[in-house]
Design a protein that fits this description.
It is built from 8 helices and 2 strands. The protein has 287 residues and is mostly helical. The protein has a domain of 186 residues. It comes from Candidatus Mediterraneibacter stercoravium.
């Protein structure tokens, strides 16, 4: 008489726990990503409106750069103007704020390439020599490169933050007191979204006395060509001329009539004398 035993094991419970944990972590990550994106959009819009309004009030040529990615960094620095330090000055802070991230990105790419080359060379040398010292040297190079990258990142972040604080200080100082401008500039570098809301709030404030922008006068409108006007005679002069013309005898007018009358009278006077002479001649012939 034989006995058979069958055993079955169900591991579905462990898999379901792992799947649910992964789904929960993914959901949290998506929620955090969505919230961060919404905050970024809000910050972008409010900062763009603030930069655009202030640039327009200061008479900048292209205020719409406040809504253009990367170009808004240049506009932000351009609104501050020249930053005067104790012995030196930053003449174009907008260009520096635009160029510094590009320099940092290029430097990071160079360090990344050097890092990959160092790892590859260390692995190849360790495999060829089969020596533990080669592997240790590779690890030491990697540690040094990581420290250099970390130090460069900290230095870049400090320089960029200081530049942003100086730019914000010069902008805020146009609308508020010096002490409050320092406070707002420092908080803008530390607290996310503070700078965007601060620019938005100050965009319509009155400029402090002596901080008003020097606006160029508007260009005069072109004058259309006008044909030369015919000079008009005043009414008094016209009346005097007409009166003089009326009083002056016209050619062949009364003067001619007087001459004609005198001639007719002479002819009339002369006619009897001729007839008398003819009568005397007849009388002499008769005698």
């Amino acid at each position: 008489m034989g006995y058979g035993y069958e055993y079955t094991y169900d591991y579905s419970g462990g898999n379901s726990i792992g799947d649910s944990t992964f789904a929960a972590v993914l959901s949290i990550w998506l929620i955090v990503l969505m919230v961060s994106f919404i905050f970024w959009i809000v910050q972008y819009i409010f900062q763009g409106i603030g930069l655009y309004t202030i640039a327009k009030r200061m008479g900048k040529k292209y205020p719409w750069l406040g809504f253009v990615p990367f170009a808004r960094r240049y506009l932000h620095g351009d609104l501050a103007g020249e930053i005067r330090l104790k012995e030196k000055s930053i003449k174009n802070p907008g260009i520096w704020k635009l160029v510094l991230p590009i320099i940092a990105y290029v430097g990071l790419m160079v360090f990344y390439i050097i890092f990959l080359i160092a790892i590859t060379m260390g692995i190849l040398l360790g495999a060829a020599s089969r020596n533990a010292s080669a592997g240790g040297g590779t690890i030491l190079i990697i540690i040094v490169l990581v420290l250099i990258i970390a130090l460069a990142a900290v230095l870049y972040d400090a320089v960029y933050k200081v530049l942003c604080v100086l730019i914000d200080f010069q902008i805020y100082e146009k609308f508020t007191s010096r002490n409050m401008a320092i406070v707002h500039a420092v908080l803008s570098a530390v607290i996310p979204m503070y700078e965007a809301f601060c620019l938005y709030v100050m965009r319509n404030k009155e400029f402090n006395p002596g901080m008003e922008p020097v606006l160029a006068p508007p260009a005069p409108a072109p004058v259309p060509p006008v044909s030369p006007a015919v000079p008009m005679m005043p009414s008094a002069d016209a009346e005097s001329v007409s009166r003089t013309y009326a009083e002056t005898p016209a050619a062949g007018g009364p003067a001619k009539e007087e001459n004609a009358a005198g001639t007719a009278q002479d002819n009339t006077t002369a006619t009897p004398s001729c007839s008398e002479n003819a009568a005397e001649d007849e009388q002499k012939k008769t005698e």
